[in-house]
Amino acid sequence: MKMLYDSDSFVVVHMLPDADLSDSAAKTAPLPPQLLRHGFEIVDKRSGKEVYLDGSWAELFQQQILAWQRDTPTQEEVEDTLDSYVGLAQNPVVVH
């Protein structure tokens, strides 16, 4: 898990696959095949809701992040883009 963005309005976290691919683990016991996927969690602090993007949604969001790295947007531009995902956020944030 890697925090990508944190502001007064949003938090974006990149959820990375949790797979132990070390050589020592592979030598002791073979690992079953795993689908290594990543995703992004976007939390709207204003509404207290979150959305998890995976699959094709995550790939599209990854492209957006790469564009941000190339173009260095303003905070307002980043917030406007994140705000476009708020309609997908249906899950209330639950503290574990």
TrEMBL record:
It comes from the Bacteria. Pfam families: DUF3567. This is DUF3567 domain-containing protein. The lineage of its organism: Bacteria, Pseudomonadati, Pseudomonadota, Betaproteobacteria, Burkholderiales.
